[in-house]
Structures are given as structure tokens and as C-alpha cells.
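Justification of computing resources. Each target in the renewal requires a structure prediction run like the one illustrated here; the chain below, 147 residues long, is used simply to show the kind of job we budget for.
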Amino acid sequence: MSIKKILIAAVCIAFAACFSQASAQVKKKAIVKKTVAAAPVKVIPPPPFATAPEIVDGKALIAKLDCLACHKVDTKLVGPAYTAVAEKYPQDQNSVDLLSQKIINGGSGIWGPVPMAPHPAITLADANKIVKYILTLNSKSLPVTSK
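Resulting C-alpha cells:
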């Protein structure tokens, strides 16, 4: 009988050892963290600086108003060339706001001693279109897209 007890004890120990290793493997698998690749982030491009209709309108307003008496596209006349203005100011809303106010209220000191005459009859919306057209003349800027 003692051999039976020894065999049963040995089988029980072997059985217990098998299940304890399987249990340890399950625990190890539970601890291992899987790295999941992150989904690519969709980059939304910023809206265009100026739309094509704004640029066309701005150019038409310059031709219609008295702007060309003092300014030329690429040559300094009484005031700076439009290309020089475009290279000095970035294509952003702050520049549009600042330069639109200079068109309406006039200004001096930035481009030399001759002051720019105020144009109070020009609406803010029209001044914005004029400035957007001028700022697109920067040869270093990206082309303007329309939607």
C-alpha cells in the first residue's frame, strides 16, 4: 500500500506542477502589454489666405481707385512698390487688419518721410481685398488656392 500512496502522491505533485506552470504562463501573458500602432493623425490644412474672388476684386479696386497714382506693382513711386509691401508683411489676418487701417486712415514713417494720404471713403471690406491682393504678390509665398 505504501507504493500506491507514493505513486498517488507523485502523480498529484506532477499534476500540481503542470498546472502551476500553466498558471504562471497565463499570468505572464496577462502582464505583457501589446503596443498598438497609433492611427495616423489627419492634418487639416489651414484655410487659404485669400480666395480667388478676393484677389480679383482687390486688383480691380486698385485699378479703379487712385492707388496707382502713388504705387506701382514692382517699382517704387511716391510710395513703396506693392511687391515690397508683400515681402515686408506676412500673409495673415494681423497684416490685413494693420494695412487696411493704413489705407483708410493714412500713415507715415514706415516707408520714408512722405505720408500716405487717408482714404476714408474706402470700406473696410474693400481695403481688406486690396491688402489681400497686395500680399499675394510676394514671390516667396505659396500660391493662393480658392475653394
